[in-house]
Every structure is written in structure tokens, then in C-alpha cells.
């Protein structure tokens, strides 16, 4: 099997991958966010670390809007059509052409709620959702429309799938749980409806970049062939075995993005990988709970991936 076939074997109950796949992600410096430089950097990282699929970082932020002062102003949010996404779509096109035959290629997909934070700021977004969620809903609908232009553009270029992130359902993020249930999750699922049509490999990423979670059951009905989520829930560790049992699908992760993979030596990294894999199911992808620090040594990542491959 090549890397593409090995990862897809995770989804075929009649097969098992010949080794444990692994993949870790990080943001490259601004010199590598667009054009051929971004394509070349992704390929360089993929080949140096020997990871098992390519995940394209999304580095094309929505512009900050200075005219959103009240919840009622969310009706002013414009639709960003396909031409707005031309820079990231060029990177998708280049990486699909360069590597799809040897490995799966997926793209980062931020949720409408996350992109709303780029447009108005996270604090303003959450404040307005608390004050008048029905007014904010108008803007979230438009942001979702915009995001679907990107999703469809990626699919037209032959992308295999997405690494789709969700936020907003973290512990104590909103005192009223209905804000997530009624005003964040529905737009996540609208995007997922488009994502799962015509793609073959999608990862649900439950992102704890800002806050931890005390419950993952609110995400059980999210699609995605693989789930990547925090390594702690309600303050307690959660293993790959437990995640796979909870979501009834292969899981990815296990490594602390700020832990031994960043600061440990080769032996410590190998031992950490072994501890993760000891509590992981057969159908598992070694990875981190979220994006690694940008200044991490690529050698550390390669050591972790090699340990998974040769377990």
C-alpha cells in the first residue's frame, strides 16, 4: 500500500493498514501562506516528517469588519464568493496535482462561528450572541454561504476531504447551552452536509485551543470518518480507545501539542508514542490534540511518526 491506500484502509472493515498512520500539523511562517511557496512548503514538511496525508493549512483570514457594533449590525456582513478564496484554492490545486496519487489531501476548514470571530473579534461575537442571538444568526447564515463557496471550490479541484474544526461548545463558554445548540451547531452541520458530498476522507476536529470541554456527546451526530479531539475531557484523560468507542469511528490524536513532542528527546518522544498507542484502537492515527507550535523541531515530529510506523 502507498500512504493513500494505507489511510483509506482505516475505513475498510475488511482491511487494516500495514502500520499505524500518523500526521501532525503546524502553521508555517507568512512567507509560505500563498502561491507556489505554500505548495512547496507543505510538500517539504510532508516528505521530511514522513506523515501519512497532507493537511493544507487555511491562511486566508476573513477581513475585520469595523461596522459591526450591535447584534443588529450582523445583517451588514457581506457574502464572500469564490473569487475571494482564489489564493487558498490555488494552494489546494497545486497540492492535489502534486501529491494526490501518493497520499490523501485534505484542507483545514474553520467553522462559521470561528470565521465570525475573524470578522468581528471573538469577544464581540460572543457578547452579541448572548445579547441577541437571533440578530447574530443573520450574519452566521451569510458566513456559512461564503464558506460553502470555498468547500465547493475545493471539491471541484479534486480535494479528498476536510479537517473541519468546531468551537463554541466548550465548558463554560456560554452559560446558556442553547446558544451552541441553536446558533452554532446548525451552521456547523450545514457546512458538513456539503463537505460529505463527493469527498472520501473527512476529520471532525473538536478544537480546545481556547477552552477545555466537559462533554463531547453534543458532537456525536457530527459527520466525519475520523474524529480528532482533546486528550482531556472534564479534567480527565481520554484515550484513543475511549474516543473510538464513544464516536463509533476511528480516532486521531493522543499527543499533547505542548508536551513531550515539543520538548522531549528522541527516547522520551518514542516512549510517549508507545503510551498513547497502548491505549489506542487498531484503527487509529497518531497525532496531536491540535496544531503544534510553529517553532517545533521537524525532527521531533519525524521521530514520533517513525515510532508509530515501526511499532
Structural class by sheet pairing and helices:
alpha/beta
Reported by name, the CATH topology is TIM Barrel
What order do the helices and strands follow? HHEHEHHHEHHEEEEHEHHEH
CATH class value: Alpha Beta
> Overall pLDDT, averaged?
97
Strand order of the largest sheet: 1-2-3-4-5-8-9
CATH architecture: Alpha-Beta Barrel
Q: Provide a count of the helices.
A: 12
- Percent of residues in beta strands: 5-15%
Shape: globular
**Largest sheet descriptor:** 7 strands, parallel
Give the CA-CA distance, first to last residue.
Answer: 17 Å
Radius of gyration from the CA trace? 19 Å
Task: Record keyword descriptors for this entry.
311 residues; TIM Barrel; two-stranded antiparallel ribbon; 42% helix; globular
Amino acid at each position: 500500500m502507498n500512504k493513500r491506500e494505507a489511510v483509506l484502509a482505516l475505513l475498510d472493515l475488511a482491511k487494516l493498514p500495514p502500520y499505524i498512520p500518523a500526521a501532525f500539523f503546524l502553521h508555517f511562517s507568512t512567507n509560505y501562506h500563498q502561491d507556489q511557496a505554500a505548495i512547496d512548503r507543505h510538500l517539504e514538511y510532508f516528505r521530511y516528517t514522513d506523515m501519512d496525508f497532507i493537511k493544507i493549512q487555511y491562511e486566508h483570514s476573513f477581513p475585520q469588519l469595523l461596522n459591526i457594533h450591535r447584534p443588529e449590525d450582523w445583517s451588514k456582513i457581506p457574502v464572500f464568493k469564490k473569487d475571494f478564496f482564489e489564493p487558498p484554492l490555488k494552494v489546494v490545486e497545486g497540492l492535489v496535482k502534486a501529491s494526490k496519487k501518493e497520499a490523501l489531501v485534505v484542507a483545514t476548514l474553520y467553522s462559521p462561528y470561528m470565521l465570525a470571530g475573524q470578522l468581528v473579534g471573538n469577544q464581540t461575537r460572543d457578547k452579541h450572541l448572548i445579547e441577541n442571538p437571533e440578530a447574530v444568526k443573520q450574519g452566521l447564515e451569510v458566513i456559512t454561504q461564503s464558506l460553502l463557496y470555498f468547500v465547493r471550490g475545493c471539491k471541484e479541484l479534486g480535494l479528498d476531504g476536510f479537517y473541519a474544526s468546531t468551537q463554541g461548545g466548550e465548558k463554560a463558554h456560554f452559560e446558556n447551552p442553547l446558544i451552541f445548540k441553536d446558533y452554532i451547531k446548525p451552521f456547523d452541520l450545514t457546512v458538513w452536509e456539503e463537505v460529505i458530498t463527493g469527498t472520501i476522507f473527512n476529520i471532525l476536529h473538536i478544537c480546545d485551543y481556547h477552552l477545555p470541554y466537559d462533554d463531547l456527546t453534543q458532537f456525536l451526530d457530527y459527520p466525519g470518518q475520523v474524529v480528532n479531539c482533546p486528550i482531556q475531557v472534564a479534567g480527565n484523560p481520554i484515550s484513543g480507545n475511549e474516543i473510538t468507542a464513544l464516536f463509533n469511528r476511528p480516532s486521531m490524536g493522543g499527543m499533547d501539542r505542548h508536551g513531550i513532542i515539543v520538548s522531549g528527546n528522541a527516547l522520551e518522544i518514542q516512549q510517549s508514542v508507545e503510551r498513547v498507542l497502548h491505549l489506542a484502537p487498531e484503527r487509529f492515527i497518531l497525532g496531536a490534540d491540535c496544531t503544534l507550535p510553529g517553532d517545533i523541531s521537524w525532527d521531533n515530529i519525524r521521530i514520533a511518526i517513525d515510532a508509530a510506523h515501526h511499532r
